[in-house]
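Co-fold these.
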Amino acid sequence: MDINSNRLIEAAVTEFGQLPGIGRKTALRFVLYLLKQKPEDVEQFGSTFIRLRNEIKYCINCNNISEKHLCEICSNTKRDRTVVCVVEDIRDVFAIENTNQFNGVYHVLGGIINPMEGIGPKDINVENLVVRVGQDEIKEIIMALSATMEGDTTVFYIFKRLKDFDIKFTTIARGVSVGDDLEYADEVTLGRSILHRIPYENTLVK
Amino acid sequence: MDINSNRLIEAAVTEFGQLPGIGRKTALRFVLYLLKQKPEDVEQFGSTFIRLRNEIKYCINCNNISEKHLCEICSNTKRDRTVVCVVEDIRDVFAIENTNQFNGVYHVLGGIINPMEGIGPKDINVENLVVRVGQDEIKEIIMALSATMEGDTTVFYIFKRLKDFDIKFTTIARGVSVGDDLEYADEVTLGRSILHRIPYENTLVK
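Predicted complex below.
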């Protein structure tokens, strides 16, 4: 008997195996785990993902996930709609919201430009960002993308697309992580942290 | 907005998070992956697990997974039914089958004795192994469990349960892995490999 001999197991291993970072061994481990659970729990396990995919909606303004027309952030009147933070995906929205340091709104690109993987400007939500900047009263766009080549490329592309608008175009600070030992910081990060040094009084908690 | 604010996402993250070794961050990564897939693919993803759990059967003889009454191995007349290899779960059946070195049949315990996790002898399939040994013409039981304290405990327990039967009771060899450098082998393994040394001619491929 080979692992292929049981169609059901094989099908389930294949389904788990498509998840990012999951190989066949881990997938089989998941399958064995599910086989030990109660049928009703597995029923719920499977149907949750089906409901998720079918029922979830995206905010028509910022592309954040939302169960309504507008997401909770866009429809919150206490948020500053003149400042838009541009992020790659909703994970970044969660991460930034958890810092409690941002009271503006978001724009979720749904990806970043990555020529190696065939992802171009048309594959991410840039057009409706341009439309937003043209229609809404936006004063500042904060680019909060990963500090990678792909992230920098995307920032540059969006910068060019928005250069004719009268807005402030900023990116989040790159620097030595809080709590990090200086001697272990890489040279590029350390270089940028010197280049973009800030007045000490700005770092004091007000 | 917190990660909790969207019930559907939260439910899906919780479902993935129950899988062994999967934390909330990885679970969220899986959820984002599913959200990018076609609805029909996610439909298949979810329903595969529900079918798996509802339709899979276990071999009444060896507890291996099987879609029929008897599994493919137990119903294969070319296999030697006098030699039974006792394993923890079906993953081990796959692994041993892939070696092409075993032509006997299996007995799947479905776990090993682990007092720390509250798994006792009654929680694993020992009783029907004893029944099998009493009924079938079994000449040898090969214990193929992990080389851990739990594995050794389980081997000892089953050894005691079967000691009145006229059978050969063996365990798989412990020793230096093929391809491993001797200086990196741990002392216990090295010690066992010397203790259980074998005549050189037995290692030659016939």
